[in-house]
Amino acid sequence: MNERVSPIALHKALERVWGSGHGWQRLSAVNHTVIGRRFIVTALLFFAIGGVLAMLIRAQLATTRSAFVGPDIYNQLFTMHGTVMMFLFAIPLLEGLGMYLLPKMLGARDLAFPRLSAYGYWCYLFGGAIIVASMLFGVAPDGGWFMYTPLSSATYTPGINADIWLLGITFVEISAMTAAVEIVVSILKLRAPGMSLDRMPLFGWYMLITAFMMLVGFPPLILGSILLEMERAFGLPFFDPTRGGDPVLWQHLFWLFGHPEVYIIFLPAAAVLSTIIPVFAQRPIVGYRAIVIAIVALGFLSFGLWVHHMFTVGIPHLALAFFSAASMLVAIPTAVQIFSWLATLAQGRPRYDIPMLYVFGFFIVFVIGGLTGVMLAVVPFNWQVHDTHFVVAHLHYVLVGGFVFPMLAGAYYWLPHFTGRSSVHRLSVPAFWLIIVGFNLTFFMMHLTGLLGMPRRVYTYAPNLGWEGLNLLSSVGGFAMAMGFALVGADFIMQLRFGRRSVRNPWQASTLEWAQPTPPASYAFASLPHIEERADSIDVPKLSPTLAAGQGYLGFVRDERMETLGVDMVTGRLEHVMLLPRRSYLPLISGVLTAACVLGMLFKIYWFAALCALAVIASFVAWSQVNAITRDLGPMEVGRGARVPPHTEVEGSAPWWAAVFSLLANATLFASLVFGTLYLWLVAPKWPPAIVVDLGLWALVALIGYLGHFLLVRRAIAANAIGKPSAALLMLAAASVAQLAVLWILLARIPDAPSHAHLATSFALLLYAAIHAFICLTLTLNTLLKARSGAISPQRRVDLSVLKLWFDYAAVTGVIAVALVMLMPELIGMLPPS
Amino acid sequence: MNTHGMQRMTRDGDRRAHVLFGHGFHRRTPRIGPSRQGFFGLAHTFTPRATLAEGGFNATPHRRPSFLILASLCALGGCDHRPLSTLDAAGPAAGPIVSLWWAMFAAATALFVLVVGLLWLAYRKPGYAGRISVRTWVLGGGVLMPIAVLTVLATYAFYLGERLIARSDEQVVQVQAIASMWNWQFRYPQMNDAASTPVLHIPAGQPVDMLVTSNDVIHAFWIPRLAGKIDAIPGHETRIRLQADEPGEYEGQCAEFCGIGHTHMQFKVIAHAADEYRAVVPRNAAP
Lengths: 834, 287
What we know:
The complex is a heterodimer.
Chain A: H1 7-18, H2 32-61, H3 71-106, H4 114-136, H5 161-189, H6 202-234, H7 247-281, H8 288-301, H9 317-329, H10 331-347, H11 354-376, H12 379-385, H13 389-419, H14 425-451, H15 468-498, H16 540-548, E1 562-567, E2 574-580, H17 586-602, H18 606-626, E3 636-639, E4 642-644, H19 654-683, H20 698-721, H21 726-748, H22 757-788, H23 798-829
Chain B: H1 2-21, H2 24-28, H3 48-53, H4 64-77, H5 95-124, H6 126-129, H7 134-164, E1 173-180, E2 183-187, E3 200-203, E4 208-214, E5 219-222, E6 229-232, E7 238-242, E8 248-254, E9 266-272, H8 274-280
Parallel strand pairs in B: 1-4, 3-9
Antiparallel strand pairs in B: 1-2, 4-7, 5-6, 5-8, 8-9
């Protein structure tokens, strides 16, 4: 293992293990480079679709009383434009960028859960395909991209349109959640040894905060979508004001997601800027610490200002003032970043290239968007321009300026890394000018159209309102911008086909992703570096040959295994070897089964959907079984004279943290459900209900059952410590079955749930508990299977640690759910009679 | 008290709207007294004398670019008829928001020029801009400057919001607005035998509280020249205060997307002289 091999031989050996195969085998790829690239390319295809939709919108609005499309089609156009751009373009693109770059920038060979990212990709692709295909059948969602109910309820949108949105988007969001867990855990655990958090490049910090925000930001939307779909499909009233629901609850859940989402989109773009600007300024970033503090602050603040989308729903003015101030406060961390970038340029020796053009574009467009954002945070002004084209202008300035421009800068910056070729300048420059002039022409005008009173989402307008000239200019600008984007597309293809072979590290950057061959090899690094300075100031030309020669960590192949290094989260001290799963068709199989399940729900064939859901669970069990390591490996040599155990034999490795962060997301979903329950009780019309839930003594049985869970899972862990977990696990499984039965009885005690929101929310709370009892049962059986096959030992106990996390979580949320349902009649008693 | 405050503001806001954006609503709003229309041609808005003659409002030089932008856009858009324009405020609930907008526009322009100027300087004259210390850049530009601007803005926004908000007040005329897909009905709860009407009748020169709700989906009640907007939410009643200074016709529309008919969910507003108001609201036929 220690004898020197030539770089070529090392490359061949690593490629044999890490490669993604050829032809149809590519469907089994789990490699981060391949999956990241797929995310990016797919997102760009959806961007093209969203762009065509935008052009159709601008064609319709170019002239007054246009007969191009009617309101039915137009409503689908703008709904799909927003939906595609937000959910199928922006979020997946940043996920793809993170997946592609993070291991390379942090000095790892892959992400922590390669199969999970592959599964996420299939969910994204199939979900996106369902949503986009609906347009071909003329049944695309048509309720606006924020799907306000009651308009999106079964009463007012009886067709399949809204179901496609709710189910399709939730399906796509699986990929957001898997990507978020993947990114958080990979950043925290899989870095090059020596890279403490304060040596991490800013890109890593940005993506870490982004992924955390996704973990906490998406669950309210996922919950809202599930509740609304349950209302549409089964008549359970959560948002229906005639049965004790409240449509404003949807708005809270949606914007509780929707506002953080804006920062989820902006932060990765800022990550790109913070990476590119120092390279072109030829000096390290100014204010590293200030930026880290700013983005952490931004992450927290962004969850405290969702109400600024709801200034006109009649919330008391004092509350509005609070959210208004919070919205303005966000300008501070944003300004800190802007001025840090400006200072970096001012104190460096800036040079010019195509990425910098887009950086300038970013400054101009995003600053305007930020300034109109502050204006919109001013409550009285918001009352006038809310829901007008002024808002349309603002959000495009922020999202195009704060996402598309930086991403284009990033695209030109990293394309040589993707392709190993250099850019063809002749097309890039005119493309930029078409885009920036076209963009400003389109959207600057919209500020004025909005001020002149044009509401958003109108499919036509009368002459003589003062809107005609402005709209025509917007349309002309829109088409110019579209041509610009087409040119960029052509430019990318040209570079791919005809670009000259690029030198390695063409921008003289100092981050790790350039210390490897381009286009990148499947294993990323032939050997992993030890980091001794901040990882955005690395001497790339000196480091890369030593890595290629295998002089870093893990410069060899052992037992045909895929290995990378795990470190202590904060200090970056070398901790363990992470053994990664080989390529596999299982993610694709799970993805196809999930798609079948979604289609079953979409067409209301629920027995089929339930069967598919079971099959998905079975496929996940297979994931866990096929990769099991059935013997203790003990400390392993990793090169540079270090020996560390594999991840299966240490505490707090990636799988355990993944469970923790999944449960964090899950807890946000549960908290949103509790919030919804109490919100309806406090605010909704048609309360108190005519009948209330009475769980009787069965509720106490359920509470005692959770105590049993709590004790039995600890017993199983103790039993494993002496090497005999099976009997204890069997008992735990039996306890889960009993708990499931008790919860089933409780659910059956809820009378006529469709009649009132109180009954519907009680049903949802208990259903949540029952689902978790079922998850615990599945996990226990899976662990039992593993115990029988020898995949668990007193040393290899991560499965049991994860099991304990889930049981404890299920117990805590279950107790809260059951207790809340028990307490609701008391709470309802406090309400004045209606 | 509240009402009084609004009335004071009326004149001011109203005049600013005239001066800055001209001539729009006079044609729509039949006026009592001598017509001042001739004064408000676009050319005149550039001469400080005309604006001063109009009531002492100083057209400060930094607002000139906005005139130019608007003037050139007016040429494209045809500004002499803008019944839905938020900039042509016709009462004290909408007027101060127009002034607020132009103040924010001026401040935003200044900040934009500052940032782009610094960017230009950083790029063109790195030696010069590089002399500014990192602390000044990050703390000065990133923290102190926004805090100063935002404190002023947030304070004024709160003050203005407090003044504009509709508080429960029996003295104020109340009208109910009930939205359905896709029309509006207005009821007059303070008049026993008043019929419900598809046209909104209000008295001119005094505040009116609209009590807004919906029969089906969420809509939004909005008369851009008279006030901001408020959502019409089924199961809830929201409230907004508006006022037309002069008798005349105004236009309102639904601002929240509400399905196929959203675009055409408009309504007409007639402001009547206050002493005629009770007489003109249509009555139910005697039972």
